[in-house]
Design a protein that fits this description.
By secondary structure, the chain is α+β, with helices and mostly antiparallel strands. It contains six helices and five strands. The protein has a five-stranded antiparallel sheet with strand order 2-3-1-4-5.
């Protein structure tokens, strides 16, 4: 590969990294063509971009980005496929569900919510991370809960008062 071609690929990888807020480094080397196509379809459904990269080019793209990504260097060995996503936990859920029984794709590392997770043992932690929309829904539910309690107390209290007044009026 010519130097110009390499710089164009590095620039494209850096642009892709900038477009997505989270990425997962995985190993899908031993998947056959049918399973690979199935994985790509699942990624497309979940709005995850799956790209196979050369480790050295990916390292150089990370060096062009703001911040220190050197914690991912130990994971950039062997075959590497990168799952880009704007949802923090959807690639982890996909990896966990797809790898049942075959143990592939394997998680090598992840950059999620400005943190580094290196090693397959972090997969369960990544699955349990809530996405931005899930966190917003939780906050709204927490904010609505006291208001619902007050409204239901007022409504039930009104029925109780109405019942007492009705009983007193009948006497």
């Amino acid at each position: 590969m010519k130097k110009e071609d390499k710089s164009a690929v590095i620039k494209q990888i850096a642009t892709t990294i900038g477009e997505y807020s989270h990425f997962y480094l995985t190993d899908i080397a031993t998947l056959n063509a049918g399973k690979t196509n199935s994985l790509r379809r699942e990624c497309y459904k979940e709005d995850i971009k799956l790209v196979v990269v050369k480790n050295t080019l990916f390292k150089k793209a990370l060096e062009q980005m703001d911040g220190d990504y050197s914690a991912l260097n130990p994971a950039l060995k062997g075959n590497t496929a990168v799952m880009f996503s704007n949802n923090a936990n959807s690639p982890a859920k996909l990896i966990k569900s797809f790898s049942k029984g075959i143990d592939i794709p394997k998680l090598k590392a992840a950059y999620v919510q400005e943190g580094f997770y290196v090693g397959v043992e972090n997969l369960d932690i990544l699955v349990s991370i809530k996405s931005k929309n899930e966190l917003i829904a939780d906050v709204i539910a927490l904010l609505q809960s006291p208001a619902k309690n007050v409204i239901s107390a007022l409504q039930s209290g009104g029925q109780t008062i109405h019942g007492v007044l009705k009983t007193l009026g009948e006497r």
